Amino acid sequence: MTATYTVDVFSSLDGFGTTSGNWGGYWGKQGPELLAHRLSAYGAEQRMVLGATTYRVFARMLAASTDESEVRDAWVTRMRNLPATVVSNTLEGPLDWPDATVVPGDAVDVVARLKQESDVPLRSHGSLSLNRALMAAGLVDLVQVTVFPVITGQTGTEPIFQGAADFDLDLIGSRTLDGRTQELVYRPTLHV
């Protein structure tokens, strides 16, 4: 049996993962329902899979934050305390992450092996280029997109699916959080 792999990303309505503007984290749209739902999603036993760039961004953000900042939301703290595999040919351990292991090699090979060997589900938050490659290889079981109610046409950076292959998506779950933010969960199938 293979472990389920979930790609978990945040997005503006126009498909950007981050912004160069002054929006703040969550584009300033986080609410108690969103934060509680995120904590619940990360409460189950699972293994995180991160690329080197995302690991570096998370490590830098956490190092620069205080216990009171939104960067240290309860779900982020929980995510950081989950076991993690960082796929990288440039990083070397030990990492500033409690239970992280650096695994060099091709991401497709590393994750294919993880899916076969893992007793728990696999989840990646961010890691856009890594996850586009995994989707193209057919290794992604679920795509969970949290869409925040903003359009960042002038300040949006990092288009989530730019350069990705074409996929048909079957919607298997959706919910509205705090009356304004949408979580959409899809099962992707490569479009041929």
UniProtKB/TrEMBL annotation:
<dbReference type="InterPro" id="IPR002734">
    <property type="entry name" value="RibDG_C"/>
</dbReference>
<dbReference type="Pfam" id="PF01872">
    <property type="entry name" value="RibD_C"/>
</dbReference>
<protein>
    <submittedName>
        <fullName>Dihydrofolate reductase family protein</fullName>
    </submittedName>
</protein>
<feature type="domain" description="Bacterial bifunctional deaminase-reductase C-terminal">
    <location>
        <begin position="6"/>
        <end position="179"/>
    </location>
</feature>
<dbReference type="InterPro" id="IPR024072">
    <property type="entry name" value="DHFR-like_dom_sf"/>
</dbReference>
